[in-house]
Amino acid sequence: MLRNIVLCGLLALGAASAVHAAEIWRWTDRYGYTHYTQAVDIPEPYRASAERADTPLPPGTRACLVAWHRYAASQACFDAYRVVGGGLKPEAFQRCKELPEPEPCR
Questions:
Q1: 76: buried, middle or exposed (CB in 10 Å: 19+, 13-18, 0-12)?
Q2: Roughly how many angstroms between the first and final C-alpha of the chain, as a whole number?
Q3: Confidence at residue 22, expressed as pLDDT on a 0 to 100 scale
Q4: Could you give the CA distance from residue 91 to residue 16 in angstroms, rounded to a whole number?
Q5: 42 and 25 Cβ atoms separated by less than 8 Å
Q6: Which of 36, 72, 85, 95 could form a disulfide with 22 if both were Cys (CB 3.0 to 4.6 A apart)?
């Protein structure tokens, strides 16, 4: 009985960490470069201004830039599921949306 309780607890923790890993945040550093990372990877000075990656970009943002932001967020999501050797855990495709690399902006 105790073994089943411990096993259920471990499974719940694993599921919670997998869901957390897929939460990607967008933040801009002091040089104006936009980063997409997990919340735990945001440096302290930028935490207050960080926002979830799925938060809409400001009105008037060019479609090309929107496509690149979506692509970067997608890649950051997959990064959370990478394994040694460059492979991906199967659940990555359940939690992340695979997007093709957009054309360069002109």
A1: buried
A2: 63
A3: 62
A4: 13
A5: yes
A6: 95
* Amino acid at residue number 47: R
Among 33, 44, 104, 18, CA closest to 68 = 104
Secondary structure string (H, E, C) spanning 18-78: HHHHCCEEEEECCCCCEEEEEHHHCCHHHHHHCEECCCCCCCCCCHHHHHHHHHHHHHHHH
Contact in structure between 96 and 77 (CB atoms under 8 Å): yes
- C-alpha 5/C-alpha 27 separation (Å) is 39
- Tokens 């000075």 belong to 45
Predicted structure pTM score: 0.71
- pLDDT confidence tier of residue 86, bands split at 50, 70 and 90: confident
Closest by CA to 92, choosing from 70, 106, 68, 76, is 76
Predicted confidence (pLDDT) per residue in 11-35, tens digit: 444 443 444 446 899 999 999 999 9
Q: Under a CB-based contact definition with an 8 Å cutoff, are residues 25 and 51 in contact?
A: yes
Report the alpha-carbon distance of residue 78 to residue 59 in Å, rounded. 27
